[in-house]
Design a protein that fits this description.
It is built from 4 helices and no strands. It has helices at about 15-30, 35, 40-45, 65-75. Helix 1 packs across helix 4. The two termini are about 25 Å apart.
Length: about 80
Amino acid sequence: MSPVLERIAGVEMRFRGPMGERLEANRRHWLLTAPHANPAMLEMFRDRDREPARDLVPWAGRESFAGKYLTSAVRLCG
């Protein structure tokens, strides 16, 4: 089955007003700062399978924290 919607070549969309301001604040204060403020958020994926096993918290390497970050980044930048 072919897609119902297709992207139109050369079209860009920009949010303005309160929604645009909120998206820009999210980009500036969360997406750009989180990896520097909390590098373990993404580094735990590397460490979870390292040998010898480290004594990590039970949720280390799960997608709950990093997944929220990565999902929001993809949606905002995509």
